Amino acid sequence: MTEQTYTVDMQKLYTATATAYGAAGEKVSTDDGRLDLPLSLPTELGGEGSDGTNPEQLLAAGYSTCFQAAMGIVSKRLEVSLSPNTEVQTQLELHENGDAYDFKITITVKNSDLKGEQLQRLLDETLKVCPITRATQNAEIQVSGA
């Protein structure tokens, strides 16, 4: 049996561009200036633990907001309503895996009016459409030097 690849034409909706500066990542900012943050390595990873944030915190924050937005879209498709008090908490753990590093990610939905099967269906469907979830599975990544 031969493997076939199918390409789907996708419409680009938005582009975000961020740049990290410094040999050890001392600052990160976006091209539109809305995000401009100092970075610091946590003490658990050998850093000084200064006031800056780190990539793991940024990814956890981005994943929480992305998942929550996707959950809102899916809830409309499923015709269920979410409480305005719904919270999405993302816990991201960095693990050493030989010479590489991996993440273990736990997403917890709190204060939702949905329970049981209804909530599980919403979460299962949200996992299928959340762009960060999808990107961590089959991302198209291009890396180049300039």
TrEMBL record:
Q: Which Pfam families match?
A: OsmC
Q: Which InterPro entries match?
A: KH_dom-like_a/b, OHR, OsmC/Ohr_fam, OsmC/Ohrsf
Give one GO biological process term: response to oxidative stress
Taxonomic superkingdom: Bacteria
Family statement = Belongs to the OsmC/Ohr family.
**UniProt protein name:** Ohr family peroxiredoxin
Species assigned in the record: Deinococcus radiophilus
